[in-house]
Task: inverse folding
């Protein structure tokens, strides 16, 4: 009798593990996974070339359209110096792969020329069912190579009504 109960429990355990494994599906992402507003925290450092080298910290509010385009405003402090423009606008394309990795390219559109920066390409990872985005600056498609260690984390912003 004991042997039968143990055997039955073991069989039930294996069956439940098999059922759980069969229901586990990897996330399927696309451009539509990113839709709405995301609040980003930016941190890092430009390492080279010397004129641009220095610490970067900032925030951004980015709106993804779910179709591969975004607009944003950012406020980035470079070497402790705030930008002349409080909120610098920017925009660009993004692409999210089925495995939730992807890229985005930011082109800044400052109204004050001193706040200009090169176009920046970022690699992204989308997590938490599209509620979080992690980025790392990769390069610039329009200027000579530079070295940077800049990352950001974005969290989806939900509008609350009372």
Result:
């Amino acid at each position: 009798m004991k042997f039968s109960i143990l055997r039955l429990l073991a069989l039930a355990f294996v069956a439940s593990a098999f059922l759980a494994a069969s229901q586990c599906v990897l996330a399927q992402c696309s451009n539509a996974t990113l839709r709405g507003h995301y609040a980003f925290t930016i941190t890092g450092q430009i390492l080279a070339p010397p004129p641009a080298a220095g610490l970067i910290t900032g925030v951004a509010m980015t709106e993804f359209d779910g179709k591969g385009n975004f607009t944003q405003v950012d406020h980035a402090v470079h070497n402790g110096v705030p930008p002349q423009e409080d909120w610098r606008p920017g925009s660009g394309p993004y692409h999210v792969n089925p495995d939730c990795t992807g890229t985005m390219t930011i082109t800044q559109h400052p109204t004050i020329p001193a706040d200009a920066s090169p176009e920046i390409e970022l690699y992204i990872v989308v997590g938490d069912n599209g509620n979080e985005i992690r980025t790392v600056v990769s390069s610039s498609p329009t200027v000579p190579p530079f070295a940077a260690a800049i990352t950001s984390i974005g969290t989806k912003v939900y509008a609350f009504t009372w």
User: Anything to note?
Assistant: Strands lie at 35-48, 54-65, 69-78, 88-96, 101-108, 120-127, 132-139, 147-156. Residues 17-24 have pLDDT under 50 and may be disordered. The two ends are 61 Å apart (CA to CA). The CA atoms of residues 29 and 98 lie 4 Å apart.
